[in-house]
Structures are given as structure tokens and as C-alpha cells.
């Protein structure tokens, strides 16, 4: 009888695929759209020129010194200084851009106001437009105009802007118009604020006053803007825009003002009454 060779059990054993733990695999696999440190590391290995092509990301990286937090090389120190300088320059640049945008907005608003004012045919039209636009567009809590000289039209004399002070410059206001025609910022000057804005001045923390004058450079009135914010108008702020605003308003109002009467101060008025 022919001898039948016996094969080992392993040769007849069916290979069964190893069961895959799908749950654990799903847990270890990063979700789509997310990156783990291994994926980032593999990408950098495959793209060694990444930081050469993207130098802007270098100033955001933080790599501690291997010898400890208190150890730093000269080159690293120079890099830190340059990084801080770049951060400051970036902030300054952003501030310049923001200021440029604000100035552009102010110029556009001033242009619109100018067009509306030159289209007016009387002081009865000028003052409402001036108050509405300055309050709405220039973040003013209150706007007032006072005229020291008599109007050309007698009907305009009834306007509060011309009748409130009776053609007399209050003594407390006199320093505001003795500035050579330049705007002046005031803070916590209750007497001056009250003289122009009345009882509501108690709520104001700062203001800007602009003398009004015509082509002959003669000061005939005062434009005041009040704000509840004490930091809204400060002595350190620029006054170019306010100077332009005062010049425009002065040129618009001056044709309606008499050119024969000179303003009196409160002191001169009292002397005349005593005589």
C-alpha cells in the first residue's frame, strides 16, 4: 500500500483574515478637515522649502531654547528684537490706515455739508442744516452758533443766534475769540460751556469752539460743538479739519451780517449803561 504522506495541520488550515477593530481605527483617524502633529510633520518633510516660500509665518513661531527658558543666543535675541519692531510697525501701519479712512469719511461729510450750505438762501435755512448735519455726521452732542454783529436783514434779528447775546460778547467768551481765528478745545470749562449751550452744558466734558469770520478776516461770531465725552476734544488733537469747518461756516454766514457794526464786550456795554 502506497504510503500516504501526512501534511502538517498548518498546510490544511484556512487562513482567516484578522478582524479589524473598526471602532478603534475610527477613533484614531483624524476627522476630515483637521490636522494632527504627525500630518504637519510629514508635510514639512515633503516640502522643505515651505518656510522659504512663506517667511511671514516665521515671526509667529515660538521655539524655546533647548538649554532652558533663561538661555538665549545672540541671534535669537536679535530675532526677538526684530520681531517686536515688526509688531510695532504693523500696529503703526494699521493706525495710519484707520486714520486715513476716518479722514476720508470726514472729508466726504464736510463736502456734503458745504454743498448743502451754499445752496441756502437765508439764515433760516443755514442754521437748521448746520445743526442737523454736525450732530448726525460728526458725533456732536450739541451745536450752537452765536453772532455778535447785526444782520443785514432785520427779520434775522429775531433768530436766537443773533438775539441771545444782544450783539455783546460775554466776557467769559472773549478768550475764545482772541485766538487769531484758530479753533480751541476746552475741557471742563463750565462757565464757557453754559454761556453757549445753556443748562445742557452740565453734561458735557469737552468742546470745540471756532471763531467765525468772513473774507475781511473780521470775527463776527462763534461756532461751538459740545460732547459728553471728556476725551472727544483735547488740546493734543489736530485742528485742521475744524479750521476748515469754521472757515466754510464763516463764509456762508458772513453775507447775511452787517459790515458796519463792531462787537462790544460785556465790560464796554456796562460802561455805556452807567453813563
From TrEMBL:
<dbReference type="Pfam" id="PF04340">
    <property type="entry name" value="DUF484"/>
</dbReference>
<dbReference type="InterPro" id="IPR007435">
    <property type="entry name" value="DUF484"/>
</dbReference>
<feature type="compositionally biased region" description="Basic and acidic residues">
    <location>
        <begin position="1"/>
        <end position="22"/>
    </location>
</feature>
<protein>
    <recommendedName>
        <fullName>DUF484 family protein</fullName>
    </recommendedName>
</protein>
<dbReference type="InterPro" id="IPR029016">
    <property type="entry name" value="GAF-like_dom_sf"/>
</dbReference>
<feature type="region of interest" description="Disordered">
    <location>
        <begin position="1"/>
        <end position="34"/>
    </location>
</feature>
